[in-house]
Each structure stands twice: as structure tokens, then as C-alpha cells.
Amino acid sequence: MTLRFSVLASGSTGNAIYVETAEKRLLIDAGLSGKKMDELFKEIGRNPKELDGILVSHEHSDHIKGVGIFARKHKLPIYANEKTWLAMESNLGAIPIDQKFTFATEEVKSFGHLDVESFGVSHDAAEPMFYCFHHEGKKLVLATDMGYVSERIKGTIKGADMYIFESNHDLNMLQMGRYPWNVKRRILSDVGHVSNEDAALALSDVITDNTSRIYLAHLSLDNNMKDLARLTVEQVLKEQGMAVGEQFDLYDTDPLKPTPLATI
């Protein structure tokens, strides 16, 4: 019974992650249209009607755009903490009461033999949270939409086998780019997004001998590039004494194309 996942889409325009074991299948966020979500599932050869639920990290549109229509179409339960429910409910449309469930921050919820551990992050949403997935001694971490990575979070996510980790922007591209200053200030704040360099520094504190893969996620379309993110993270990790390609591998994610299903 293995743990498998695909980053269906990741970026400023929409986010969705698929996680499965032999007995359970979960979707984390659905930040694209219902039609696009169906297309992404077809690309990885999975049927969304077989999902056991949608976990919602927070209420921003790039994480919930398709949640309501997707849940209604496929009759899926939705899990979110109470503050996120209050913040997003009006944007989901009518959700039957028997499809609405609470998943508190700092809680472990079991889906069969898959244990999902939620943890709070610093981001400008009502009560944002992300997840560690535990299955038969293996650990997958999903951590994006963070203004910074606290010591508490590092303690929670340390030693994972694989990471899906935010590497949102290149600092120079953001500072020199077209965004108005108030938007730049928000991105750079403690409730904004993690830069390539800060992502690498945080990863250097949590990677252990267990770690085999890191997926760089939630890249800005305007203020980052895949090659730049990967090179920056690789260089910073090298400066911290870690050898990408020997100890572990780095992978890209895409805003519109899923990654191949990976097995932990």
C-alpha cells in the first residue's frame, strides 16, 4: 500500500494537489474551473467521482475557484476549518449539509490508513493551513502560501520523504517588476509568499536523509521562472552543504499541467 501524489496545478492562477493510497483518494484545493479540474484528472488517469473528499487550505480564489462546482458535480465532501468555511462559503454556491465537514488547524484526521496532519501558516487569509500526509512510515508535506516559515512549522514538517514547497518569487524580479508597491509589500510581508532564496533556506533546515524529492510550487507567473527558481534553490542548498541530484532531486510544477504520479 503506497502513497502517491500528483501536483495537478500550482501557481498564482490556480492550485490543486491529488494524493492517494490503495484505499483513499483526496484532493487538496481546487483553484481552477470545474472543467479544467476534470481535464487534469483525466490526464493522470483518475476518476474524480472516486475521491473521498476535498481538503481546503484557505479561501483565496486560486485555491477554491472550482471547489463548489466540483464538489456538487461529483458529490464530494469538503473539509475546511471553521474560519475558512465562513470566509469562502458565499463563493462556493449551495453545498448540501451532508457534504460539509470541519477539519481544524493542528488536527490529525484519518482517512483509512492515511493520516492527514494540518498545520497553520502565516498568510493573509482567515485561518490558512497546509498538510502533512502520513502513511505506513512515509511522509509527504504540502506547504505553500507562507509569508515565512516559522520554527514551529519547521518542527512539524522536518524529515519528510517528499516536499511540495512554495518557491514563489525571485526577489529582484519582484522589486523591479510591474506590480504596484502595495502589492509588492504584501507579497514580501510576513503574510505574503516565500521567495526562492527563503524557500531554500527553510528547506535546508528540514531536509534529512529521508528526503528524496522536492517539488517547487506556487511560482509566480510574473516574478519567477522555473529555471531561475530551481537554480536559486539548488545554489543555496549547495551553500548549506547539500547536494541536489545526489541526496535528493528537485522537480518543477506547472500552473496548467499535472506532474506524473509519484510514489513515496
UniProtKB/TrEMBL annotation:
SMART domains: Lactamase_B. It holds the Pfam family Lactamase_B. It comes from the Bacteria. Residues 13-218 form the Metallo-beta-lactamase domain. This is MBL fold metallo-hydrolase. It comes from Alkalihalophilus sp. As8PL.
